[in-house]
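user: can you give me the structure for this one chain? tokens are fine.
assistant: on it. calling the predictor now.
[tool input]
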Amino acid sequence: MTILKTIEYICSVKPYISSKEKTRRMKIKIVPAVGGGAPLELEVSPNATIGAVRTKVCAIKKLPPDTTRLTYKGRALKDTETLQSLGVSDGDKFVLITRTVGGSENLYVELPETAWYKRLALEYSLMQEHEPTFNPVENDLTHYEGVIIGSDLYEGAYFRVEIFIPRSYPYFPPDVVWHTRIWHPNFSDSVPARVCESVFKDHWSPSLRLIAVIESLRNLLNNPNPEDPLNPVAAFEYKNKPDLFKAKVRRFIEKYATPEQAFKLSR
């Protein structure tokens, strides 16, 4: 075979791609942290960066990219990290943190930088004094993780919670991720759970502190309101079948909300 014929033959042969390489894709789920909405399922390459995944999610959900953050197994992610480096497996779940960027005029407001750092320092001081189970994650004063302990119906329950402070704080509320599964009229039966709390919506004020957010969550936890439910089945049981409701609450606590589980997962 002449050299020319050999070159023509090589060029005509398609490179072999194994079936493993062809199907080297995985499916991941993107779950909204607050505000509801169905989980979004994406098919991606294991080599995809978090930035690429986030950009794709923002395009689908029509969100400004600079108002979102992804977390995985309770950790806020950097855009440069890859799914492979994180050890992500097929079917794994990511939490989408979104930040509101204004009202009808799409107004976005931030504190001046000096005031912003003073506010973060104040929040840290108050958290250390009043909510000692909450601590900054990796010394990041915009990211807290801790445990809320139940009482009354939820006596003996420990719920793992994460709080993310956006740059628009305190003009807009922090993002809250409720990681522990719970049976409650005002929490969705999902992980993470959606929270029915007006402090994150209509009643937010810049004068409120993080400790007020945690106290609002604690108050909602221990004082269910079946008239404004996120879990209508739990609300029905609470009003009409209290014994069934209490039994189910105890089962959920024993299965999902033990101190070992909460503090093991919390940093």
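assistant: here you go. Residues 13-22, 101-106 have pLDDT under 50 and may be disordered. The longest helix spans residues 113-130.
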